[in-house]
Amino acid sequence: MSDCIFCKIVKGDVPSEKVYEDESVLAFKDIHAQAPVHLLVIPKAHIPSVRELGEKDGALLGRIFSTINRLAEENGLAERGFRIVNNCGEEGGQTVHHIHFHLLGGRSLTWPPG
């Protein structure tokens, strides 16, 4: 998608502070951090939302979640806990239509936020 900000980040057309990259997944710091650690983990392939996922995407999802676990460990979150967030659709708060997972931690995360 030529107008997708995350696709532009994957291609290197838009700068980001990358923390992990492999052949199918990219992780980078969120520029609007809501916690001391706030990373975005995305597939490099353009997938608009979790509504587009199916059984065929099992390996990709496994790769995304193993990346999240690796980053949680590397950032000192694994033992204390962390939050993984995915927003889906307009009422779910999705503003970028490229599937992404927020990894948040480094402080107590209460719900609802406040």
Automatic annotation (TrEMBL):
<protein>
    <submittedName>
        <fullName>Histidine triad (HIT) family protein</fullName>
    </submittedName>
</protein>
<dbReference type="InterPro" id="IPR011146">
    <property type="entry name" value="HIT-like"/>
</dbReference>
<dbReference type="InterPro" id="IPR001310">
    <property type="entry name" value="Histidine_triad_HIT"/>
</dbReference>
<feature type="domain" description="HIT">
    <location>
        <begin position="5"/>
        <end position="114"/>
    </location>
</feature>
<dbReference type="InterPro" id="IPR019808">
    <property type="entry name" value="Histidine_triad_CS"/>
</dbReference>
<dbReference type="GO" id="GO:0003824">
    <property type="term" value="F:catalytic activity"/>
</dbReference>
<feature type="active site" description="Tele-AMP-histidine intermediate">
    <location>
        <position position="100"/>
    </location>
</feature>
<dbReference type="Pfam" id="PF11969">
    <property type="entry name" value="DcpS_C"/>
</dbReference>
<feature type="short sequence motif" description="Histidine triad motif">
    <location>
        <begin position="98"/>
        <end position="102"/>
    </location>
</feature>
<dbReference type="InterPro" id="IPR036265">
    <property type="entry name" value="HIT-like_sf"/>
</dbReference>
